[in-house]
């Protein structure tokens, strides 16, 4: 379980990015982190794994306070935290398999990593994960030959190759089309439930967050202003998080876009069957 307690980040300028942020995430729970740009979402994720140093507070991952760890212990603790990035963070010239196996770099010796000679058990697990994310036919492809959705699936498999106890996911659908975005979100949620992995997803798409996450935390100016089920995101709450907007029209427009896409996909399937 993850427990964030009174986490605060103050920059040298005196600006506060986070103020007394507190919440717990249980095993298998997927939390959507929403809020306007500059609300502190990315800072919060990076403070949890200490890519950004918190000013105060605690981050407990299964009773280990990550904030108090020294360099060596922190490096070992980060093995337990899988990161999935908006821009995929793959090595373009390496194959899909090699990118997934890079999730084991924190566990193997320098020479094994340098020569890319990983233990058989790690390779077998990578094959299983690539099958799980639907990429078993692309094992030997270079990463730069993949579509955006395929690259994100490689990123998911790489994070899982670490044997993580927590997933931190930064804008996993920002560069993807609506259909692929739903597929990626569905895959993440299914895997978290299968493996009882807690996950925090920094996501701009409110409708996707409502559709796929178990719980939503809304940040405004570095403070938690909403923490509850997706059904609790009323127009008043969304206005508190983002400011005034015609939220009914937004939801209607999104629903119309999804219906139009579903209709187009059905028509394409019908045409293919007629060939």
TrEMBL record:
It comes from the Bacteria. It holds the Pfam family ABC_tran. InterPro entries: AAA+_ATPase, ABC_transporter-like_ATP-bd, ABC_transporter-like_CS, ABC_transpr_PhnC, MetN_ABC_transporter-like, P-loop_NTPase. NCBIfam families: ABC_phnC (TIGR02315). Gene3D superfamilies: P-loop containing nucleotide triphosphate hydrolases (3.40.50.300). GO terms for cellular component: membrane. CDD domains: ABC_PhnC_transporter (cd03256). This is Phosphonate transport system ATP-binding protein. PROSITE patterns: ABC_TRANSPORTER_1, ABC_TRANSPORTER_2. Keywords: ATP-binding, Cell membrane, Membrane, Nucleotide-binding, Translocase, Transport. Coiled coil: none annotated. GO terms for molecular function: ABC-type phosphonate transporter activity; ATP binding; ATP hydrolysis activity. SMART domains: AAA. The lineage of its organism: Bacteria, Pseudomonadati, Pseudomonadota, Alphaproteobacteria, Rhodobacterales. Residues 2-246 form the ABC transporter domain.
């Amino acid at each position: 379980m993850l427990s964030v307690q009174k986490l605060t980040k103050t920059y040298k300028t005196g600006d506060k990015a986070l103020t007394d942020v507190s919440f717990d995430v249980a095993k298998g729970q997927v939390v959507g982190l929403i809020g306007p740009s500059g609300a502190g979402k990315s800072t919060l994720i990076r403070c949890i794994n200490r890519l950004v140093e918190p000013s105060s507070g605690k981050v407990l991952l299964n009773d280990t306070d990550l904030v108090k760890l020294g360099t060596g212990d922190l490096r070992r603790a980060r093995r337990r935290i899988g990161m999935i990035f908006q821009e995929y963070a793959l090595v373009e010239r390496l194959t899909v398999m090699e990118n997934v196996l890079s999730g084991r770099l924190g566990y193997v010796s320098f020479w094994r990593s340098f020569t890319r000679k990983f233990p058989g058990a790690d390779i077998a697990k990578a094959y299983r994960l690539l099958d799980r994310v639907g990429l078993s036919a692309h094992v030997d492809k270079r990463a730069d030959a993949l579509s955006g959705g395929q690259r994100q699936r490689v990123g998911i498999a790489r994070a899982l190759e670490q044997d993580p106890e927590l997933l931190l996911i930064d804008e996993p659908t920002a560069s993807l089309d609506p259909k692929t975005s739903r597929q990626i979100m569905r895959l993440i949620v299914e895997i978290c439930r299968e493996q009882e992995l807690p996950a925090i997803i920094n996501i701009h798409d409110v409708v996707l967050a409502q559709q796929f996450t178990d719980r939503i935390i809304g940040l405004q100016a570095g403070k938690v202003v909403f923490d509850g089920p997706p059904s609790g995101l009323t127009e008043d709450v969304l206005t508190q998080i983002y400011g005034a907007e015609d939220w009914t029209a937004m939801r209607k427009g999104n629903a119309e876009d999804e219906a139009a896409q579903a209709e187009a996909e059905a028509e394409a399937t019908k045409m293919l069957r007629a060939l």
